[in-house]
Please model this.
Amino acid sequence: MKFIHRLQQAWTAQRSLLCVGLDPDPARLPRHLAAATHPIFEFGRAIVDATADLVCAFKPQIAYYAAARAEDQLEMTIAHIRQRHPSIPVILDAKRGDVGSTAEMYAREAFERYQADAVTVSPYLGLDSLQPFLDHADRGVIVLCRTSNPGARDVQDMESGGKKLYQLIAEKAARDWNANANVLLVVGATYPQELREIRAIVGDMPILVPGVGAQGGDVAAVLANGATADGTGLIISSSRAVLYAGGGSDYAGAARAAALKLRDEINHCRGLS
Amino acid sequence: MKFIHRLQQAWTAQRSLLCVGLDPDPARLPRHLAAATHPIFEFGRAIVDATADLVCAFKPQIAYYAAARAEDQLEMTIAHIRQRHPSIPVILDAKRGDVGSTAEMYAREAFERYQADAVTVSPYLGLDSLQPFLDHADRGVIVLCRTSNPGARDVQDMESGGKKLYQLIAEKAARDWNANANVLLVVGATYPQELREIRAIVGDMPILVPGVGAQGGDVAAVLANGATADGTGLIISSSRAVLYAGGGSDYAGAARAAALKLRDEINHCRGLS
Model:
């Protein structure tokens, strides 16, 4: 099944636009996990199992696993989601981007090695750098458009002929790069006005929205500016605000409570009670 | 010692601007290595040992190791270079780029886990995404400016106020991002005119130039347009044309011959015989 259909099914069946991001910072793991053989996996597994009925996707961030020399624990985490929660798509947050022959290897990393349903990529190198990802027609290719960080302005706001770079990326994504109907965009929750402009450009294309929670993005503004007419179209991702809601032995329960609150807030903003 | 000083020493002591890129494609490894416990490492070690006296740097491309689930062999390769050829800097080609908290993890991956002297990064997310790398003042941060692929034009040629995006990146790199004097740029050998423009913008900043060899970049044009007044300033990288110069049991000898020829061609073009 194509990624976007899997996502739409998850939106409906789970009644949720919430995505939980798995950013397991070793310095912030609950202390009692330190003795585990695979502490990062154990942490992720507990978060996944505690929130799986509340989300439309999980988004592991590969940098945290790579910095900890824990690619095996990333594999274990994704395998666990596949096995125990097979209807929940997995987005590998990797922001890869390289020339064609190397991009082919990164596509293998994401889609074959890790078996991700979708991966985030950078558009800086242009279409041929995205092609090896796009060729996997059943997987999602989530292109950075307007990122959630303050420095997003440095490059993405460059203006040409009355249009900003992030607007041009949105146009290319919708018109030139989407032959397989498997392109999505990343737009940070911290930029609601830009989210509105991008939504107007890309029609119903799903948008991954990081930056609610720890980064300060406002849920109501995200829904008002980014939702499609049917009240979906968004993958609203929170990582730290969920993962580290509690620091003690009941961190999973605290994460569930935080995820539940956020899911309900999102649903309230889109008219579901 | 700062990366740029290490690089300058290597340029002088080795009398070479050549960098050998380590892109170990499992499908192209010599057949007799298939039985080795660590075939990718064995391949890289043989290439490294056969070319170490001819180069100013080695540049392993992490995507090839990640696709093959062989991060351990990347660690072994870099450790081997450190131990046997300690004067040759190691550039980790990773093209990372993410928001600040995640960029910090990518900086750890490159500089702590892999102990790279320098890493390639993407500028799309702006200064705060580069800062965790830049803060490692003794390491090199090599920012994508004008890449070697055909699709480079799609985004990097966007024009604003008479300047193209790659020119603006070069300006920012030279003026705004280089407080620690540890920024370099990537400019593809396939775009000599753009290389000339970028050299004019950045003064003596070292430029990593991929794209000679398999991608078709012309060595004479690279030197004519990219070298600094003293005939250095460039890290001219070749991967496939060296690695796969011979496919049989003497692949290392064939790689050495190809590297020697390319080093000499580069030196000839800069007036060294």
Summary: The mean pLDDT of chain B is 96. DSSP finds twelve helices and ten strands in chain B. The two ends of chain B are 30 Å apart (CA to CA). Chain B touches chain A through 55 residues (CB under 8 Å).
